[in-house]
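Before going further, learn to read the protein records used in this course. A complete example follows; check for yourself that the lines match position by position.
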Amino acid sequence: MAFITSLRIKNFFSIKDEVTIDFKASPYNVENNPERLFEFNGEYYNKVISFYGANASGKTSSLKAITTLATIVANQDDTNFPISFKNKFTGLEVNSQLSITFVLDLNNQTEEFLYEVEFESKRFENIGIKDERLFYKKDEMIQIFSRSLGEVKNIDSNIQEAIFNNLNSHKSLIDEFYKFDKSKILDNIKRFFVDISVSSNMNAFNTELGLPLFRYEDIATWLTELSHNSDLEKFYLSFFNSIGLDISKIKINYKELDGKKKEFRGIDIFHAINPNEPLQIELESDGTQMLMKILLDIYKAKMLGSVLVLDELDSIVHPILVPIILNLLIENNIQIIYSTHNIYNMQFLQNDEIFLIEKDVNHVTKIKPIKDNKNIKGYENLLTHYENGDLGGIPKIEDLITKIY
């Protein structure tokens, strides 16, 4: 089990001022919906976190704070490093800073960590990592490493010296030191961030809303090599059949090459209406293909014990299916953090599961949790309040444009 408890962002794309996004549950949710929560040390945290807001309000930037950290920690070389986190609405002379607190199971114990990164930049361009710190969150903060101090716990001093003398500013200390960590803490933390990269539909550079050709092979690999006793196919078929799609079989086609090598040739989808004539996956509807992708992301998160970060969930899934998918994640103890425009599903969410994203007159993103609204108790229909403009985070339409020039 792994989940995120909070996120702090400063001077990151349009999020100029420092903001902390706390995923702690409200008293109402603790009392009435404990199945929707993780418990750790007597505190409760949400399994479902949604970001609502108008187009270009900063929803993706909020998610990208998580996947940027994941991309950097998972980085195996110095080429996969973001060029910039700034735009003309941020403070060019102020460094971008990200920090995340998260909970992991380590050696049959549940532990909480804080990971902080400050980036060095020259105007718009990222130069590298200026400082980086990792802490245990116990009764007091216990530092595991500090980039600026050149200190790492549980690592032999000669290894520390050699690595710090040749430190790459584009690579995380987690990646530099995890192989030498006797406690295996860094190994588990690296895996946590790598798993987020694997199971989410975005990274530090872009969001993947479509299904490019190489993703077909990803589906095939998980179906044949990384699935356990064809569990992924069973998951696919049971879900599709439960929503009225008559898919009965999925077959992966490989061409045998020299030795043990084989070449991926495609995926055939069989339907009950004509079980002998398959349909190639690329000829299936876009909706079916995108459902296969999101179901694979969910399956990965379950198998890896990962957090699922999804941008634009409503662009993939029909509104009626969203609460079904959220319940699937809740029941399987998978935390999902996602952006959406689908206000219909507000009526199925709790007040502490919704964060409203909007820009002020200076184009600076503001993040407002509904649970901080004193007028919302927890039992209201949040959709009605949102549509009435009581909560914010809605498109600002001053004049309706009807003329095409």
Summary: Residues 2-208+311-387 form a domain with the Rossmann fold fold (CATH 3.40.50). The mean pLDDT is 88. The chain has two domains: 2-208+311-387, 213-292.
